[in-house]
From TrEMBL:
Locations listed in the record: Cell membrane
Record domain ABC3 transporter permease C-terminal: where: 264-376, 720-829
Membrane-topology descriptor: Multi-pass membrane protein
Organism: Roseinatronobacter alkalisoli
Major site of localization recorded for this protein: membrane
Protein name: FtsX-like permease family protein
């Protein structure tokens, strides 16, 4: 090893010529992953630092369907230093009267005089919240987000209604300190005083609302406080949350988005790995005589392998250091651009964990892509010292190196899964990248074979430039493989994102109205159901109406194991309260996958029908038990059957349907879906809102558009990540073009000697670049279309239609990228004098 290091050190004195592409690819890949990790770490620090403000206190007690009883409230007041009570629900905000009225769904928060315990509410104009919510000209004040006020046509000082209670708009809400810690809402926020809602008719028995008690605990240990609360409210359906997990939805989104972007960054590293491999191979091509000479002098193959492995190791370390420096600096530039989109102040700093993660990825990727060409140096024999490396260094390395390479790939996938918030996402991404690289490698081989045949085809005789371009593409030294691999992977991601984004938008604009209801109505009281249905039965524009009783419940245990301790504790069914219903008979269209429905007159112990997909994810089977808490009462039911639940239609769907007896007597309301012609939607909403002001109507199209906006944001983030991959791919293209410049100089000299013009030579160079780009784009388009079809079909469960506009953009992008890279390095070959070049050849 001492001899190997001495030789490696001496060769490194020659500088980094030939390794700029190596360093650039590694630096970009590691830098991208380190930057994403640093931003994620800074956001996590901000959530931890400002957790109490985001939550609205040190801790929160959440109750569903009810306020605390006098005894419970007395205990809470004695337990905490300070308490704030807030009721949260959705309702319809109405402005105006009669046919000229405007209405829109809003997320209402009723607060007491101590709100907010921490932070401050932002209002425009800037007035104290107490003043904004005080009585004004005989009406209580209220504040709402500007978008809601504009939707209703309200100005400051105008009157609006919640239920049957009128309020006067006193300010626009610009900042809600605890807004990020709240549940997802279907409408903009409105804040009023809780006591002003007493006569609004919105908080009746069974109405869907939550009451949150925010607590200041004056430095008390949160774990001890949680245990005390759980002991006091055991079985009362009270949920605890503290400042350590103030905004779980935000936390989950950030974890998943950052994990996804890191995995996309790994795809970029894979592209860079192609450039790394090409750079190492090109470097070793120039060391053929050195390797053969060392073998002639008695050097063993393992010594030579160690020499170049040490050199690559030093350069890899340099590339990783540069990448980590880039990843540490970039977040400082990005922070001002994303600060307004985040719930916390972003203080960028160094995050060792993120840097170590990026360094591990970089080291493994470099080793995977350099081991193969390094191992083939064993094939160089001293006897062919003057024949060139291609004579013997082609082919496959020995099997131990192949096994080591496969082990390293497996190790990289396992490390990615260990770091990712969703391990299955890591495995899926790794499988996709490996599969895409395999397809692109086969495509590159196929392109070379087809180009070789086309160059010899009679049909191309007389088309000299095109034949020369085809001949060059078929040459292994031309780098068609590197071009198609590096450019193709980035274009594949872009193609898939473009197809998915366009299909989602098309589904919302065209498919959804055919499948989904027009409105989703909530909080229909039992006494209102007949009148509600009578209004819709008389309307010829209504196709059908579906209704179901609805309660909210918290799943507290599975098979006797508390939900928080169950292996499936992270499942979405267990994270919050869930809607449940009851039915004596099997609902029409329900398909059972296991078990059987109970008899219509069943009156035994509670039974429940559970969603088959959700049960499989949580490890539940027929015969298992589920304990739910409804209005403070625990009910344990046996799973009688499993059934398919389709949420994609936007209609009524419940994970849990129970036998009627346990919950029918509990206060509850009904929900309804209304399928109607779009032209009649306005009249339906106006009439039902006027008849029953407490009913909340959610327009399914608007809700779906909000989801689409969120998905489009993800698509935009992915597109930027794909552009980063393309940047790495473009570096590889430049490296391949630079590596082939000497060959093109000689080629141009020979062609000039044979009478070719500069225009003809340039045309040949341009054609080969454009054809390789078109090949990369076409293959990427096929792979991206297949991936997007799979996502739409199996993940989104929606129809798929090939979109031509983004498809054409992908192919054109591939052509332009390779054409630009190729032509930049065509200038020197065109300018050389043939005599000087040919005279220098042996």
């Amino acid at each position: 090893m001492r001899v190997a290091w001495a030789i490696a050190r001496r060769e490194l004195r020659g500088g980094l010529r030939g390794f700029w592409v190596f360093l650039a690819c590694l630096t970009l890949g590691v830098g991208a992953i380190a930057a994403v990790g640093s931003v994620r770490g800074s956001i996590d620090d901000g959530l931890a630092r400002e957790g109490a403000t985001l939550l609205g206190g040190d801790a929160e007690l959440r109750m569903t369907y009810r306020f605390a009883t006098p005894d419970e409230r007395e205990w809470i007041d004695g337990f905490a230093t300070s308490v704030s009570e807030a009721v949260d629900f959705r309702s319809m905000a109405v402005a105006g009267q009669g046919d000229d009225s405007e209405r829109s769904v809003t997320q209402v928060k009723g607060v007491d005089a101590t709100y907010p315990l921490l932070g401050s509410v932002g209002l425009d104009p800037e007035i104290p919240l107490d003043q904004a919510l005080a009585m004004q000209d005989g009406l209580p004040g209220g504040v709402m987000e500007r978008i809601l006020a504009e939707r209703l046509g309200l100005q400051i000082g105008d009157v609006f209604r919640l239920g049957v209670q009128e309020f006067r708009l006193s300010a626009h809400l610009t900042r809600e300190p605890d807004g990020m810690g709240a549940n997802f809402g279907f409408g903009p926020r409105t804040i009023v005083r809780s006591d002003a809602l007493q006569n609004a008719g919105l908080l009746g028995p069974g109405t869907l609302y939550e009451v949150n008690y925010r607590l200041l605990l004056d430095g008390r240990d949160l774990d001890q406080a949680r245990r005390a609360v759980n002991s006091r409210f055991d079985g009362a359906g009270v949920r605890w949350r503290d400042s350590r997990n103030a905004a779980p939805q935000v936390q989950r989104v950030i974890e998943r988005v950052s994990s996804f972007l890191v995995l996309v960054g790994l795809a970029g590293l894979a592209v860079g790995g192609v450039g790394v491999s090409a750079a190492v191979r090109s470097y070793l091509d120039g060391k053929t005589n050195v390797i053969a000479t060392l073998k002639t002098l008695g050097a063993e193959s393992r010594t030579i392998l160690a020499v170049y492995l040490m050199q690559i190791g030093v350069l890899t370390a340099l590339g990783i250091v540069l990448g980590l420096a880039l990843g540490a600096i970039v977040p400082f530039a990005v922070a001002p651009l994303v600060a307004d989109q985040l719930p916390v102040d972003l203080h960028i700093g160094l995050h060792p964990g993120a840097l170590v993660e990026a360094a591990i990825y970089g080291a493994l990727t470099a080793l995977i892509f350099t081991l193969w060409p390094l191992a083939r140096t064993e094939n160089v024999r001293a006897a062919v010292i003057f024949r060139g490396i291609d004579a013997d260094a082609q082919g496959w390395p020995r099997w131990p190196y192949i096994l080591i390479t496969l082990a390293l790939v497996g190790g990289l996938v396992v490390v990615a899964a260990a770091f990712a918030a969703v391990p299955m996402l890591a495995f899926a991404t790794a499988g996709g990248v490996i599969g895409a690289l395999g397809v692109l490698a086969l495509a590159a081989l196929g392109v070379r074979v087809l180009a070789r045949r086309a160059a010899r085809a009679r049909g191309l005789r007389g088309h000299t430039a095109l034949r020369m371009a085809m001949g060059a593409i078929s040459n292994p030294r031309e780098g068609a493989g590197a071009v198609i691999l590096s450019l193709g992977l980035g274009l594949t991601v872009l193609a898939a994102v473009g197809q998915i984004d366009n299909n989602l938008r098309r589904a919302i604009s065209s498919d959804l109205p055919d499948r989904a209801p027009s409105y989703f109505f909530l909080d229909i009281q039992n006494t209102q159901l007949d009148g509600f249905l009578a209004r819709l039965d008389d309307d010829d524009n209504v196709d059908r109406v579906e209704t179901a009783p609805m309660l909210r419940a918290v799943v507290t245990a599975l098979n006797g194991i508390p939900s928080r301790d169950h292996p499936a504790a992270g499942h979405w069914v267990l994270r919050g309260d869930r809607g449940i219903t009851y039915s004596a008979t099997q609902p029409e269209g329900t398909r059972l996958t296991a078990g059987s429905w109970w008899d219509a007159d069943y009156s035994g112990p509670p039974l429940v029908s559970f969603g088959a997909e959700q049960a499989a994810e949580m490890g539940l089977r027929v015969g298992d038990s589920v304990t739910i808490n409804v209005l403070g009462r625990d009910i344990t039911a046996e799973i009688a059957n499993l059934r398919e639940v389709d949420f994609s239609t936007g209609g009524i769907g419940f994970v849990m349907v129970m036998t009627p007896d346990p919950i029918r007597a509990a206060p509850h309301t009904h929900i309804a879906t209304v399928y109607a012609l779009e032209a009649a939607e306005g009249a339906i909403l106006r009439d039902l809102s006027n008849m029953y002001p407490n009913i909340t109507a959610i327009r399914v199209r608007e809700a779906a558009e909000r989801v689409t906006e969120a998905l489009s944001t993800m698509a935009t983030a992915t597109s930027f990540a794909a552009l980063a991959i393309l940047l790495t791919g473009f570096v590889v293209l430049i490296g391949a073009a630079a590596a082939g410049e000497r060959a093109r100089v000689f080629e141009a000299a020979v062609m000039k000697t044979l009478g070719a013009t500069r225009a003809g030579i340039l045309t040949s160079f341009a054609l080969r670049s454009a054809l390789m780009g078109a090949a990369a784009g076409s293959v990427a388009l096929g792979a991206g279309a297949l991936a997007s079809w799979a996502v739409m079909r199996f993940v989104m469960e929606a129809s798929y239609q090939f979109e031509w506009l983004p498809a054409i953009a992908v192919i054109v992008g591939g052509v332009l990228a390779t054409l630009l890279a190729g032509l930049v390095f065509a200038l020197r070959p065109l300018a050389v004098r043939p005599a000087g070049i040919l005279r220098a050849q042996d």
